[in-house]
Amino acid sequence: MSGRTGVGVVGAGVISQTYLENLGSFPDVEVLAVGDLQPERAEAQAKANGVPRWGTAADVLADPEIGLVVNLTVPEAHVAVSTAAVVAGKHVWTEKPIGMDRDSARGLLEAARAAGVRVGCAPDTILGPGFQTAKRAIAAGVIGEPMFVSTAFQTQGPDLWHPSPAFLFAQGAGPLLDIGPYYFSAMVSLLGPVVGVSARGSRPRTERVIHAGPRAGETFPVEVPSTVQVLTSFAGGQHGTHLLSFDSALERHGVVEIHGTEGSIILPDPNMFEGRIAYVRPLGVLRDGMSVEQEWIDIPQEGVVVGRGLGVLDMVRAIAEDRPHVASGELGYHVLDILLSAEESVASGTHVEVSSTVAPVPPVEAGFDPFAATV
C-alpha cells in the first residue's frame, strides 16, 4: 500500500464507536465503509461517523478501495471473517482473541502468508504510551534483569453492570479468555514467549444473576471457571503468577509488577493506554529500627494518548515502511496458545507445554505521532 489507506470496518457493535472515532482522526487512514449482519446498524454507525458507505460484510470485502479490514465481530466469527478478508486480498486487524482454537487460527495466518497480506490482533494497548514508556525503562535497565512478574485482575464480575453478561461466562470467554489477552500480550511483549503453564480454576457458582438493564433478575449459566490462577514459565528463564477472577469481593484491576535484580517496577493497567509507571530500589542493608518504607520513583509517561485503533495505524505505517508491526497475528496466536494451554491445565490438573513461540515484539518508536501524515 502507498498513500492514505482505505479501511473497512466489519461489525457495528458498541466497540465500533471508539474505533471509528479514533481511525477517523488519523491522517494516514480513511474509513470508507462499515458492514454488519444488520445493514441498518452499519448505516447508523457510518452516518454518525462520516463514513461514506455501508452494507454487509460482503460489501466491505468486495470494495476495491479498501486495503485493510478491521474485524470487530463476535469472537466466534473472528477467523471466518478474517479469512474471508485475506482471501479477498486485504490486510486484517482483528479484535481479540484471534480465534477460538489453534487449528483455525493457525490456518488464518498460513492463508495470510500465502496471500502476501498481514494480520494484526488486539489488544493494541501494548502500543500505548503508558506501556511503551515502561518497556523503554525496563530495556534501559532501570530494574536490572527482570526475574519474575506478578499480575492480578479481580472483580465481582461483569454481571454486576453488563445488561447481557451471559456470553462473558460462556465457552471461549470467562476471565481467562476475555481479560487474559491484555495481560499476557503485555508480558510476552516485555519478556518474550511463554514455554509452559500450570493453572488452577474454580467455578463457585454454576448460575449467576443479571443485575443491570431490562433483564435484571434473570439467571444464566456459568460454563467456564470464573477464577483462574496461572503460573507461567518464560523462554528467557523468568516466571510469573497471574490471577484472573470474576468472583472477588475486592475490586482490583491492572496490577502488573515486574521484579528485577536491581529494583521492581509497576506498570499501567494493560487494558488501558496510559497510567502510572514507578519503581523502587532495593533497601540494601536492613538493621533493627530501620524503616522498610521505600521511595517510589515515578517515570513520566511519554507519548500521545489515543485509544483503540492504534494497532491499525501501526499496521498501515509498518506495511508502508516494510517493517514488522507491533501487535501481530503471530503474537495474537501465541497468546491464544497460552490461554488455551492454561484452560487445558485447569481441566487436567497438570503442567502444559506451550507449543508455539513468537519473535521479539518490536517497540514503538519514541515520538510516535498518530496525528502526523506519514504515508
Automatic annotation (TrEMBL):
Any one GO MF annotation of this record: nucleotide binding
Keywords, ordered alphabetically: Oxidoreductase
Domain Gfo/Idh/MocA-like oxidoreductase N-terminal residue range list: 7-120
Top-level lineage group: Bacteria
Boundaries of every GFO/IDH/MocA-like oxidoreductase domain copy: 131-265
InterPro entries, sorted: Gfo/Idh/MocA-like_OxRdtase_N, Gfo/Idh/MocA_oxidrdct_glycsds, GFO_IDH_MocA-like_dom, NAD(P)-bd_dom_sf
Pfam families xref list: GFO_IDH_MocA, GFO_IDH_MocA_C3
Coiled-coil annotated residue ranges, if any: none
UniProt entry tagged with the keyword Oxidoreductase: yes
Keyword S-adenosyl-L-methionine: no
Listed name of the protein: Gfo/Idh/MocA family oxidoreductase
